[in-house]
UniProtKB/TrEMBL annotation:
GO terms for molecular function: aldehyde dehydrogenase (NADP+) activity. Its EC number is 1.2.1.4. This is NADP-dependent aldehyde dehydrogenase. SUPFAM superfamilies: ALDH-like. InterPro entries: Ald_DH/histidinol_DH, Ald_DH_C, Ald_DH_N, Aldehyde_DH_dom, Aldehyde_DH_Superfamily, ALDH_KGSADH. It comes from Streptomyces zagrosensis. Residues 12-286 form the Aldehyde dehydrogenase domain. It comes from the Bacteria. It holds the Pfam family Aldedh. Keywords: Oxidoreductase.
């Protein structure tokens, strides 16, 4: 993915003081975390409604700054408002509290059990680093902001320099909508500049950070988060090459369909997606799939990229990949400076010999085709890949008995496995997983898309023998917010409990 944050240098943006912003966020954190689920839901829905009202102006600004086109941007804004309403529903349900109540039980197998009540509460102020390639959905009012606000966390967004005007317009809308819905002051703020982002990340009031960008920039920020006097969670999405394996039967039986699907996925949004299928493994043979893909990419139009820095990065990595031993240029523009689609090919032996250099992410419309002889030969090759957001198989049901080991290794190396589909287009839904083993993300146990994204900004707290009037509202017996409560009563033993012994177990 692109460099959303580079290490600072002499040309870094002017210092942007953030102390007041973080102090205000910390000052309102307790109030926002204790707000009723219905109140947080109303605030999120108000942001969605206000963004919709400003759609024409926002789209015009976004198109001027990002060159993504009004059709794409309208779809992305719709996704953004949907995300906000999805998390409004999550907040309203209260299910994310994950309330568990154990009644006191003197006969518990491991010894007398006290009354315990456990739930999840907001972490506190969250810093969101906006992404370049999604000026709405992964930016100021995007999924990280929506999920953190729904969890009860104040949010500070570090604007991306690729769309500063849009960031300011969106932030003004968010602030206005939240205030109108009764949200407390300090629950949302926008900061700008690399130094401001670094200052915020180091601020003692911060409790978590979320980032979408390059591996280089993300690791730089992750080290800062880890090296703080009080380390904090850093949820970084750092990029992926998203391997796709085409089986022999699929290559011969669905040549045109696979070629068209791959070319469309590779060039979607000028290849500026973290789920872009940069690696394609195809069987050697006379199926014509490689030639058909090459023909489609030669005919594909050159689309403008998000900015000159991103275009230059695309050209640089493309040159590096094309210079690997055994790499062949199948599609390459006459003018090297054009951000046009590019296609390289090499056999699997050359790919293995090149090591990690061959699996480097190229943020843009470049595909590397790797030809293999036997499907079984791919298992150790795929197992050696770095962590991925997605991994896909284009195959036939008749081959399912041959694909068990392959599918297992793809699941081991990625967060989402696809069958006869393409990875671009990440649905915002409950079961979506947008994350994966390092370096796809810094925290493979979480997702940045879908309703489960709220879990990143919550932490569990247990109360033992605490009186009712001192308990947080979700843990009380009268349950005034009507949140789901899982209760363990006396005499009921969970399936995982071992045979009772005569001595209590201290933990």
């Amino acid at each position: 993915m692109d460099d959303s944050m580079n290490p600072p240098d002499a040309s870094a943006a002017a210092h942007n003081p953030v102390d007041g912003v973080l102090i205000a966020a910390a000052g309102t954190a307790h109030t926002w975390a204790r707000a009723a689920p219905a109140d947080r839901a109303r605030a999120l829905a108000a942001v969605a409604d206000t963004l919709e009202e400003a759609r024409p102006e926002l789209i015009a600004t976004a198109d001027r700054e990002s060159h993504l086109g009004t059709a794409r941007l309208n779809g992305e804004l719709t996704r953004t408002t949907f995300q906000l309403r999805l998390f409004a529903d999550q907040a309203r349900s209260g299910a994310y509290y994950d309330v568990r109540i154990d009644r006191a039980d003197p006969n518990w197998p491991t010894g007398p059990r006290p009354e315990l009540r456990r739930y999840r509460t907001a972490l506190g102020p969250v810093l969101v680093f906006a992404a370049s390639n999604f000026p709405f959905a992964f930016s100021v009012a995007g999924g990280d902001t929506a999920s953190a606000l729904a969890a009860g966390c104040p949010v500070v967004v570090k604007a991306h320099p690729g769309h500063p005007e849009l960031s300011r317009e969106t932030a003004a809308i968010v602030r206005r909508a939240l205030a109108g819905a009764g949200a407390p002051d300090g629950v949302f703020a926008l900061i700008e500049g690399e130094q401001a982002g670094l200052d915020a990340l180091r601020h003692p009031a911060l409790r978590a950070a979320a980032f979408t960008g390059s591996e280089r920039g993300g690791l730089f920020l992750a080290r800062i988060a880890a090296d703080r006097p009080e380390p904090i969670p850093f949820y970084g999405e750092l990029g992926s090459t998203n391997p796709v394996v085409v089986t022999e039967r699929a290559a011969y039986g669905r040549t045109q369909e696979i070629a068209s699907g791959y070319a469309a996925s590779l060039t979607l949004g000028a290849g500026q997606f973290c789920t872009n299928p940069g690696l394609l493994f195809v069987p050697a043979g006379e199926h014509g799939l490689v030639e058909r893909i090459a023909a489609l990419l030669r005919a594909a139009p050159t689309a403008p990229m998000l900015g000159n820095r991103i275009a230059e990065g695309y050209r640089t990595v493309a040159e590096q990949l094309s210079g690997l031993s055994g790499a062949r240029r199948l599609v390459w523009p006459a003018d090297d400076h054009q951000p046009a689609p590019r296609l390289l090919a090499m056999d699997v032996d050359a790919f293995v010999a090149a090591g990690s250099a061959a699996s480097a992410e190229c943020f843009g419309p470049l595909g590397l085709i790797v030809t293999y002889r036997q499907l079984a030969d791919l298992v150790p090759v795929l197992a050696a890949l770095p962590g991925q957001l997605t991994a896909s198989v284009q195959g036939e049901l008749a081959e399912s008995s041959e694909l068990g080991a392959l599918t297992a290794v793809l699941a081991d190396r990625s967060g989402r496995v696809l069958w006869n589909q393409w990875p671009t287009g990440v649905s915002v839904t409950h079961a979506m997983q947008h994350g994966g083993p390092f370096p796809a993300t810094t925290t493979p146990t979480t997702t940045s898309v879908g309703s489960a994204a709220i879990e990143r900004f919550l932490r569990p707290v247990a109360y033992q023998g605490v009186p009712q009037d001192l308990l947080p509202v979700p843990l009380r017996d009268d349950n005034p917010w009507n949140v789901p409560q899982q209760e363990q009563k006396q005499g009921v033993v969970d399936a995982f409990v071992a045979q009772p012994s005569n001595s209590a177990v201290a933990m």
